[in-house]
Write a structure and sequence with these properties.
The complex is a heterodimer.
Chain A: H1 8-15, H2 20-32, H3 37-52, H4 56-80
Chain B: H1 5-18, E1 22-25, H2 26-33, E2 42-46, H3 51-58, E3 64-65, H4 69-75, E4 77-81, E5 85-89, E6 93-95, E7 102-104, H5 105-110, E8 113-118, E9 121-125, H6 128-134, H7 141-160
Classes of the chains: A mainly alpha, B alpha+beta.
Chain lengths: 81, 161
């Protein structure tokens, strides 16, 4: 099975540990977003996912399909560059 | 690596019959709880005394540990691998790096949720609060995004009550 490729820069920004103070700062901003429209957006997404895929097995299967689609799209994008 | 459906079925069936105290953590646990995120990784947290039991259970499906049990205990983690790649954490406890909070396996295990994956196959995951605590171990941007989603799940549940 293939795994998706992302740029080294994107991967580093996503996965490299942050200093604790910076982590807390960014987390506070992210949680503050939940006091506004973002909570409605995320709740809607979560509600849809839970209604559409009510069991853990269905949820994992959906996530697997989406990941496979993402890998295919990333491969295609890399080929046509 | 990403599992196929049958591989995933076999993995969870093996975990369930292992008798090992083992928790599904990470993004797969988020998905099980109802948060749509993408991942190809499996992350498990096994009790430090149950490594051999877990390894024996997944051996028939071809998952091979990359370290001996003694090495895994010493390093605090190891990998089970074939076409799948399963990260296994072994530590008795881990500390959140920002709030310095100790998260012990025994406590998380005692509070766990068992969810039905298939008939006779339950998967154990941490509570929402404990899963959020595990997301404070590595202090990555990814974890901030995940905590935001888990908090949204918590508030969605609260509003639904």
């Amino acid at each position: 099975m293939k795994t998706a490729r992302v740029s080294k820069e994107a991967e580093a920004a996503w996965l490299e540990p942050l200093p604790p103070v910076e982590f807390e700062r960014r987390l506070a901003l992210a949680l503050a977003e939940l006091d506004g429209e973002e909570l409605e957006n995320l709740s809607s997404l979560i509600g849809w996912f839970q209604r559409r895929y009510p069991t853990p097995k269905e949820r994992l299967a959906y996530a697997r399909r989406r990941y496979e689609g993402w890998v295919r799209a990333a491969d295609y994008a890399a080929r046509i560059k | 690596m990403q599992a196929t459906g049958p591989e995933e079925d076999e993995l969870f069936a093996a975990l369930a019959r292992s008798g090992a105290r083992v928790l599904l953590i990470g993004r797969q646990a988020m998905i099980v709880l109802g948060v749509p995120v993408m991942t190809s990784d499996y992350d498990l947290w096994v009790h430090i005394d149950d490594i051999d039991r877990l390894n024996a259970a997944v051996d028939p499906i071809g998952l091979v540990p990359n370290r001996t049990s003694a090495e895994a205990r010493q390093r605090g983690r190891y990998v089970l691998e074939n076409d799948l790649h399963v990260d296994v954490m072994v530590a008795r406890a881990a500390t959140t790096k920002d709030t310095d909070e100790k998260v012990g396996f025994d406590d998380v295990w005692a509070r766990r949720q068992s969810l039905s994956y298939a008939p006779g196959v339950d998967v154990a995951v941490p509570t929402l609060d404990d899963l959020i605590r595990t997301k404070r171990w590595a202090l990555r941007q990814k974890d901030i995004s995940d905590i935001q989603l888990l908090e949204a799940l918590r508030r969605t549940r609260t509003e639904g009550q």
